[in-house]
Amino acid sequence: MDKKTSLSKIEDYVMQLFQNEGTGHDYYHMKRVALMARGFAREENADTFVAEAAGWLHDIGDKKLFNDPFSAKEGMKVFLQQIGLDDEQISTIERAVADVSFSKGHKKPSTLEGQIVQDADRLDALGAVGIARTFAYGGANGQLIHSENTANTSIQHFYDKLLLLKDLMITAAAKKEAGIRHQFMKTYLAQFFKEWDEQ
């Protein structure tokens, strides 16, 4: 099976898993990360197939999204075998997604493709889409928008994670775009607090 067909089948697989996901980790998030990863891979002379495939698959097995992360990862491996990927390709994709998550700490992935996917994933948490995803995730998990009485709010998430991401980017293209999106979020927060304080 050629790589284009393999990627199409991977996209369909991800669509089935995430099409009804309501926390901002949906099919469209995977698509944005996959396409950004492909573009970054071209700029960085990395393996575009591995980067795009890992972009599509990077949230499979995330404990926030799966009740049984291990089974989800094993299911992904079986699926990749079924569509004809060899053991080396599967292993390379698995390595690329292994250290992507922010929750695992500020760990730099061991492969260039992993670094690219991590950058693409973090970029999708920034800017206008990132703001929308933050409130979608907060709402789905019962978080308040903002409160002086608890730190477990969507607004606090900006300070705990989102505003830190700009300085964690690895690739040149991601660093440039992150700066733009970071500034947009700061502008948004300034306006948010202006309106909030007018209550």
From TrEMBL:
<dbReference type="InterPro" id="IPR006674">
    <property type="entry name" value="HD_domain"/>
</dbReference>
<dbReference type="Pfam" id="PF01966">
    <property type="entry name" value="HD"/>
</dbReference>
<dbReference type="InterPro" id="IPR003607">
    <property type="entry name" value="HD/PDEase_dom"/>
</dbReference>
<feature type="domain" description="HD">
    <location>
        <begin position="26"/>
        <end position="126"/>
    </location>
</feature>
<protein>
    <recommendedName>
        <fullName>HD domain-containing protein</fullName>
    </recommendedName>
</protein>
